[in-house]
Amino acid sequence: MKKYGKQILYMVIAVGAYAAVMLLVNMGLLSRQMTSLIIPVCMNIILAVSLCLVVGFLGELSLGHAAFMSIGAYSGALVLKSGLPVVVSLPLAVLVGGCCAAVLGFVVGIPVLRLKGDYLAIVTLAFGEIIKSVFNAATPITGGAGGMKKIPAVTTYKNFTFVYILMLLVILLVSYLVNSRHGRAICAIRDNYIAAETIGIKVSRFKTMAFVISAFMAGMGGVIYAGNIGILKPVNFDYNTSIEILVMVVLGGMGNITGSIIAALLLTVLPEMLRGLSNYRMLVYAVVLIAMMLFNNSPMKRILVEKKNMRQAAKIQ
Amino acid sequence: MKRTAKVISMALAATMVFSTSAMAAETFIIGGIGPTTGAAASYGTSVKQGAEIAIAEINGAGGVTVGDTTYELALEWADDEASEDKAPQAYNTVMDAGANAIMGCVTSGACIAITSQTYQDGILQITPSGSAEGCIENDNAFRICFSDPEQGVAMADYMVETMGISKIAVIYNVADEYSSGIQEAFEAEVAAKGGEIVASEAFQTNDVDFNAQLTSIKNTDAEAIYVPAYYQDATYITKQAGELGMSLPFYGSDGWDGVLGTVTDASTVEGVIFTSPFCASVEDEKVVAFVSAYEEAYGATPDQFAADAYDCVYTFKAAMEQAGSIESEDMIAAMPEISVSGQTGDPITFDAAGAAVKDVKFVTIKDGAYTFVE
Q1: What is the CATH number of domain B7-145+285-357?
Q2: Rounded to a whole number, what is the distance in Å from the CA of A225 to chain B's nearest CA?
Q3: Residue ranges of chain B whose pLDDT lies below 50
Q4: Per residue in A2-21, pLDDT tens?
Q5: Which of B31, B85, B253, B313 has its CA 20 to 30 A from that of B219?
Q6: Pair type for strands B273-275 and B26-34
């Protein structure tokens, strides 16, 4: 019983969150503003958790997450626009979007993952810019600078159940992966590259694996984006978007899935909550961000965490 | 201390009395959506301020009378950062605030991102400045400004037919929807009218060196250069053309409005002609009244975004009066019947597609100042 306690708790939270949202929406208690945030929150959680795998667990700084998202978004949007019934086209689009992103993640990953640290970050940044230029230039397919338009709005809050299940799957996949044998190998690479190699872990293989899985999930997130907004423009997938996702991961505490989820939720809702401040909104948002980052790194938080650990230890005894 | 509290509470009570008396008239809320932060903030700010001038004017003149009710106009503004992802939230925020009609979005992409929602809600949506085709696709959506192709076609007709130019070179921004939209329509129309595009040179957003494009145009027998782009680009292009010793006349799109503020030497843009619906320095009674009210309130000269927004508010007023109702359904039905006498056109009417029908005006720079082409 003790062993499954945590899993049961998470399950209760997952079901409870779903029930709460459904109840609020169906009873009309949620304002339209908040209702329109439901899907972006789920999407950002998918993106943050997937990036968490690369940045938090693999320990490599990737600044090209928006590029994978855009590939998924564009390819998924083509499927959504094909005119198939939504029941077929939506899951298919998510799958196609994910796969396209994963294939590109693989192609890019092979040369890129031989680099480390700052070099990898710069190369992924450049990769993102290349993808953006390609989408800008391929006007017949992507609509160029004007964007791909008339994408059916399939992932609105009315399809919350589908998006929510997808989000749960992503979270489950990442959390089971990092607790598995493969995940331990990934973490080992992060903690000590040389030691991992000496005990026989195939570093480049595990790096590529984490990178590809992360790209796959980012691609799925991109499809959710496409179906929610209805228009895709290359400028919306620039490095700023990558950084935004990275901020969620960093704020959540590197390698902390729960943290990433909470940070994604917070950073999506916060700018909307601050609308009352009109033009000072983005300023206050930035200040709050700085404050949260400082708190995350402060001795006060460390003391709080230690206290919690002590309490747990006392309970076990 | 006690006394201070007393004074404050009395002041509060007084404001409450005043605010309740001001609330006596019914309020018609215009939900404005546009960027007031981010890279496109100047457009959104202009729209917001232009609309506020019009609203103050209308309210000052007693509001809008529909049937036996008088409505005061109010603007509920939400920032969308000119971003497609933020626009739906901004739209829903103004809807939460009880918006009766939507003025927005300011930029095309953001506008397209909310059209399906406004259509579902059946609310009257008028974009002051969203020039892309998709903005007014649905029956509930209308536009005040010219669409991109309209401008290109108008300028092509003007250059080929009125000015008698047959060999034209084009410089345009391939990464910008506005610029490439005009360029496409322009080139097609020039060809249809029997003119010839001798060079079509592309550049990218944020380019500052246009020597390559200008040199290749110099080697052709072009008689004029058409630049559908924003004034920042136009500033560099005209200056570098002068340095290369080129004396070909320049023609531009409405993005050129404001070019006099950025050129170092006004003689480089002397004689250029561009399409623009609004010119702040013309001696017209209505324009002067708007410009002076705007300058007094905000300390800046209104641009065409402000003028479009001003006309947008008057369009709402005309639609309310024509419909005799503030229900979106009735106002949408009344839209094709109204005629607005505005800053950017007199009269402005709306066709079945939802686009504004008004004359294209040509502005030229003469002696370092904007004037309409006679």
Answers
A1: 3.40.50.2300
A2: 8
A3: 1, 12-23
A4: 567 788 888 899 999 999 99
A5: B253
A6: unpaired
